[in-house]
Amino acid sequence: MARAFYGRILAHEEGLAGNDVVLAETVSRNIFGAVAASALAAGAMAAYIRAAVKGLRSRAAGTLIAGHIPFEASPSLSTGAGSQLSEVSP
Predict the structure, then answer these.
(1) Alpha-carbon span 37 to 39, nearest angstrom
(2) Domain residues for 11?
């Protein structure tokens, strides 16, 4: 179980390091799993993950530690429109 977990972490890190193809494949395999995901859906989720990580990295550590963790709502695949910013608080 630990091997599978750490393998997924490594795959996501490789994708987040800049390889969009690897990130989309990892998302398709690890998030969608046995459900057939279109390349569009996997690519959209990979782009969302990349944007979320970029946003989190731009925040001060104290803000995150205090529990103020903003996430942009994922865009709708049918409309392409994003939703408003929401914040996850403790």
Answers:
(1) 6
(2) 2-88
